[in-house]
Amino acid sequence: MRFKLIIAYDGTRFAGWQVQKNGSAIQPLIQKALETVLRHPLDLTGSGRTDAGVHARGQTAHFDTEVSVDPKRLALSLNALLPPDIRILEIEPVASDFHARYSARSKIYHYHLSLEPDPFTLLYRHPVYGSFDLELLKAGAKEFIGTHDFTSFVNTGQDKSAVRTIYRIDIVEQKGGIRLEFEGNGFLYKMVRNITGALLDIAAGKLKPEDIKTILAARDRRRASASAPAKGLFLFQVNY
Amino acid sequence: MRFKLIIAYDGTRFAGWQVQKNGSAIQPLIQKALETVLRHPLDLTGSGRTDAGVHARGQTAHFDTEVSVDPKRLALSLNALLPPDIRILEIEPVASDFHARYSARSKIYHYHLSLEPDPFTLLYRHPVYGSFDLELLKAGAKEFIGTHDFTSFVNTGQDKSAVRTIYRIDIVEQKGGIRLEFEGNGFLYKMVRNITGALLDIAAGKLKPEDIKTILAARDRRRASASAPAKGLFLFQVNY
Known about the structure:
2 copies of one chain form a homodimer.
Chain A: E1 2-9, H1 26-38, E2 45-46, E3 55-64, H2 71-81, E4 86-94, E5 106-114, E6 126-127, H3 134-144, E7 146-149, E8 163-174, E9 177-184, H4 191-203, H5 211-218, E10 233-239
Parallel strand pairs in A: 3-10, 5-6
Antiparallel strand pairs in A: 1-3, 1-4, 2-3, 5-9, 5-10, 7-8, 8-9
């Protein structure tokens, strides 16, 4: 039987989803907790990696077991074993050909910016100082929507093709700041943070919205803006 | 000239508002920053103390200076000197007889409970497990409203009189939990946390709403429930 997990975590103290040379990762902690409860070795496959310091409200993963499982009880058992900054939100049985990574239709990431001083969101929002033009930001966001070769917005050492489709980038005002909602068919290493970095430069007047066309065409990471910090980024939802 | 400050802080790493024997406090940090900017010694008087680990969205304080001050610029200068978990939200000139403590008409405290697993509010909400009856909680809250001798809900070593008036205790549902809003003419040491502790026992069915009358009449701290943890408590607003 195959099961799907929906997982939330505060990425602050972790080296990322997957095992890294340095620091502790999230995936092995959940896999170990599952093995402890189900009493057999297994593989927990996530929808994709999240970097050090990146958070998740809706990471997904799957695993197989022959043990008879009550999903609600299993979630309670896992949460009792896991640290409080990792929470299993849901477990459900899925078809045997479901795959957390390959079956995904789209992924939604949120990037949180704070525009007012707030001591309570220091670990979850990137504070923006100085000039910030929301209309310029919106115009810049439009330049990224659609199917593009995102090589200029991807850090090296990744997939061969950097062609991806972004369905939407919504800018949502929320108390004390704004939230950028990215939905696409897939995002490469640091892609959301690199796009956000460019959008911050556009909002600050350092870059023009129309410059994005040239930067995309250059297919050169060195042409684009710096990456936005990890702490503002949340893997919000994976759609199947 | 007298000025009033509105201050927000994350209390997690502080020993409280006022100087303590152990650990760092918030009031001396702000006072020192003011002295650095204005270049003279001064006294910063708060609306009252908050305990170790208690947060504030709207602590208030006042100080006097003969230096000509632009309130907005002063707030920016202070925020540049202060750590990011303490933020000066507002500074305004007030009448010379304004007093942050004695002029206060009412104080509003919020206590946040989380009823769903959430890795992102571990430092700001008290998680409630097990049975939780919202209707019982509401009935219990009503027992505290009005003028009472709160001796049973105050930790020792305090004012002579524990008679205070609570104007309202509103129970507000919010995403993932609830918020208790307390407004009163003054709250004594640990009073909000002690009342919240009793309300949690009532919601869990360990105590009946009508038991509060007996406990109040006993005027004995040992008769009441344990204190709710500091991390869920926010000094939300001081009204003048």
